[in-house]
Every structure is written in C-alpha cells, then in structure tokens.
Amino acid sequence: MSAASSPNSPQGFPRASIACGTAGDVRYRRAATTTQKGWLQHGTAGMLIAQSRTRIITLTIGRKVRILGLDCFVPVPGAEYAHFDSDTSLYEYDIAFWDPAATYRHYDAASWREHYSGFASFRESESAQFVFTLTRRRTEFEEFVKMGRVLVILTAAPQIMGYDTGKRTQSGTGKAVTTHRHIEFKALQDALPFKFRAVQAKGSRIDSPREDFGALLRKYPDRWWYRAILDSPVGLPLAVVAGTDKVVGSINKGPGGGIILQLPDLPIIDDGYNEDEDEDDDESDIVDDPDPLYVDLIEWIRQLRGGGESTLPKWAEDLQFGEDIARGTQLFTLEQELQQLMAKIAELRAERARDDRWKHLITSSGTQLEERVGEAFALFGFDLSPPVAGRRDLHLTWQGRTAVVEVKGIKKSAAEANAAQLEKWVSSELSETGKIPKGILVVNGWREIPITQRTEILFPHQMLQYSVAREHCLLSGFQILTMVRAVIRGDVQPEDVAGSIMSCIGVMPGWESITDVFPDGPLEVVHDSEPENQAH
What is the sign, positive or negative, of the torsion defined by CA atoms of 325, 328, 333, 336? Predict the structure, then answer.
C-alpha cells in the first residue's frame, strides 16, 4: 500500500510498493489496491476500505485467522497492514508476514533519507529510533514464535541501512577544520531472531522437497519468484532452485510450536486495473475476490500448525452454545489480566535494560563508555558541560569546583601516556580559566577479560608517581559501576561519592568487591547431557 512518489501518499511511500514481494515492479500491481488519492486504510470486520469514494474491497472466507503484513499487502480477508517501524504489535495475530526489501524501499523513499556507500542512511535524528525499532521487532519476532505463531519472511538479500552513531571527530586546523560524522551499517534482517546468510539472485524455476508445498508451487507455477539464495538456511529446505540443491526457502519449527517460514517472493499479479481511471465510481463496487494463492497459502500454514479441521461458515460461527456466554466472560477477564501481566513484564524488561546499560562501564570503550561514565557522574551530583570535539572527554563541576575527565577503554593496563593526556586537559583548563581543575582518569582496563578473571594490576607503579604528583584521581570502570549500584540501592549518598572522588589522590581505594555488584556471581550454564553429533 504504498507509492511511486505521489505527494498524497502516506509517509512518502513509493506508489510501486503495494504488495508483498516484488511490489516495486508495476507488472505486479493489483486492481483496487489503491487509486490516485484512495490509500487503503485498515478496515473492520474483515474489510479493507479505500479512503476516497472509489472502491470498497469486501473479503470473506471461513474460519478467521488473524494476519498482519509488515510492509506488504496480504490479499486475504481481515488481513491488516502496518509499517515495520510502526508501533503495531505482533502479539494480536496468528500469522505475520514481513518483506525486508519492501521495508528498505519504504525507508529509501522517505524525504529524510541520505545515501552512504550506496546504501540508504538515516539522519542523526532518526538513527536512534531505527536501532530501537530493530531491537524491539527482534524481541517481538522471537516471542511471537515462542507463542506458537507463524512468522513468514519473504527472503531477500541483506537489506543494508546506514545510521548515524552520534560520534563526531574533527580533522584539520583553523578555518580548514572538518567535522566527520560516523556512520555504521546494519541489515534490516538483524531484526530476525536467527542468523542466516543470503546471496542476491533472481529466478522463477522453483521446486520443493516437500509434497505439500510442492503442490502449491505446481498449482501457481507463474506466481513464484526468488530474490535470494540461502547459503545457510534456518531449519529444513522448503524450496530450491529446480534441479539443484540451492535453497530459496526454508521451514523451521521453533520452541512453543511456532514456525518460521522463509519463502520465495510472492508478487501479486496485475489484472489490468488502471490507477488513473475515474475516481467517482460507485462506492459499493465490489472489485476483487481474495487472491487464491494467498488463500491456499494461509490454509497450508494452518495445516502446518495442526489446524486442518474443516472451516465453519459465518452463520455457524455466530451460533452460541449455552456455555459460551460464561466462557466469553471468563475469557474477557483473563485477557484483561493477561494485558496487565504483559504490561508488568514489559516494565520489568525495561528496568532490566536500563540496568544493563551500566554494564558498559566494564565492557565498552569509546563513545559508549564515555556516555555511561558521564551518566554515572551526573548520578553522583556533578554538572556536565556540553562535549567539545577534540577536547577532554568530560568537563564537570561540583560545589563550585571543576574537574576534567579522561576516559579509556583498553585491552590491557593503563599507562603513563593516559595520565599525560589527562594532564594536558588539566593544563588547557588552567590556561583558559586560571583555575586548576581536578584531574580524573577513568580506565576500563582488560575489558575483553571477564570481570571475575581480571587479576592483573590496572594502574602500574611506574605511572603512580606521575599521577600522585599532579593529584590525579585514578578510577577503574568497575569502581564506577560499584559506586553507581551503591547509590541506586541507597547504600551511600551521591554527595559522599562525589566528595571522595574530588579528594582522592592516586588510586581510589575500595569499591572493588564483585559480590557488592553481582551477589550471585556470573550465571553458569549447566548441560544435562552432551549434545549429539558435536562438531569439533
């Protein structure tokens, strides 16, 4: 349900992307999916209704299956449509389709999009939301399958998007100084709860090692295409390039009875509809029947889920047994309780995610570490000045005193060069303000070694004399984490922590007990039995 550049299209969607699969090709545009101004909206009671007075699509089949298409139109009764980046939840549906290639086209068509290295990229203002969306959808996809639902992915080669990390560096001097944005890349398929490799390839000769799916291929031989070959499919092969073992579709039954299907492309055929025809058609004009391929595909999926019982006609579904009224009341009550429970689960997960951010103090380097250290000092009651590129990592004030902070995340111990860099920022502050600031060096050393196994000295003796002579405070990332947890628990007052830092000369004493932070120590994985056929 999207657009090739009409200004009236919602969210700047290209008009070509109106269906699952190869929607970008006008050959596959389907009648009544849209008109010049009549963008399809979600309807009710199994109906899709055009926004303008053009056409109404009414679709009815037997037993209701709740279906969602993420960035793809699923032409069966009651199927709903949403963008990948919308807040529409998967949990209300039985089957969810997602076309990553259509999501890429949606992002690429947006007015804010940029390009780096040939890939569509987000501006800084949209980048954080993009990363959040990938994480949120990955959680949803994983839980959706665990709930026994069916996730259908229309297989495509990795859809790479660039995003702004927020990091800035500068080069040059004077008027020739240049500020550089740091862009990183993620595949949209990173949202999937499994890893696989896909290589771009296109063709239409497809076969299946399964008789049931092979019957669908044979029944609609001109409707199936593949856009990628799976180098490392998840689960069992479902579709292959005819006459080869090159996999273009797979099936995997996950925990909880859920199913992950990676299918070849499913374009919707063109039945001669003209987008530019008169928009004043009779509102009651019934345009299309359900797409038979999709109806058969949904029924096949139901059979996979064990839903092979014969469907009931609508009039039979509306009949109620005597127990149905009491059962309905009980279901309503339980669903309300479930919503409250899910809300509490989401709240606890959010709390855990917020706490997990502090673990970067003992694992990370660069901007991520600097940000967590800055948040820690803010928690202790320090005021932070805005960062200045090419200057000290942090500039703090506390009770009228200033401090400059050098933050390092390294794979080994600290060195005198780190202290010398800190002293450079101290000298710079002195020359600018005439006041000597407190120098604070925070080092997350041996960061690639588990915290329980870090036994080497972090601040070697040869650098201590240099730092003590300049009244530097030397802190480890773990000490900062210990302080943070103590403040959060209420075991110590923030001003006491801040005061101890500002008065410390040399290595900060204490704050090194792992059990104060992780009372139960690291989690240990216990195997009830050795895995079979283990590769060595």
Answer: negative
| Residue 429 main-chain phi, psi, to 5 deg | -65, -40
24 burial type by CB count under 10 A (0-12 exposed, 13-18 middle, 19+ buried): middle
pTM of this structure:
0.48
- Cα 167 to Cα 186: distance, rounded to the nearest angstrom: 17
Share of the chain above pLDDT 90, in %: 47
Q: Which of 484, 491, 482, 477 is nearest to 510 (CA)?
A: 482
Compare 181 and 159 and report the one with higher pLDDT.
159
Question: Which alpha helices (DSSP H) does 110-184 contain, by range?
Answer: 124-146
Q: Among candidates 29, 78, 50, 9, which has minimal Cα distance to 281?
A: 50
The SS3 of residue 480 is: helix
The tens digit of pLDDT for each residue in 171-213 reads 777 666 677 878 889 999 999 988 888 999 999 999 999 999 9
Here the contacts of 41-45 (C-beta below 8 Å, separation 24 or greater) are: 42/80, 42/81, 45/78
Pairing relationship of beta strands 236-241 and 114-116 according to DSSP bridges: unpaired
* Tokens matching residue 51: 């926004």
Beta strand 473-476 pairing with 506-507? parallel
List, for residues 204-230, the tens digit of each pLDDT value: 999 999 999 999 999 998 899 999 999
Pairing state of beta strands 198-203 and 394-398? unpaired
**40: region left, alpha or beta (phi > 0 left; psi from -120 to 50 alpha):** beta
Phi and psi at 121, nearest 5°, equal -140, 150
Crossing angle between the packed helical segments 494-503 and 477-489, to the nearest 10 degrees = 150
What does each C-alpha distance from 194 to 255, 305, 368 come to in angstroms?
13, 21, 26
C-alpha 225: how far from its chain's center?
28
CA distance linking residue 450 with residue 436, whole number of Å: 37
What is the chain's alpha carbon radius of gyration, rounded to the nearest angstrom? Answer: 29
- Predicted confidence (pLDDT) at residue 282 exceeds the cutoff of 60: no
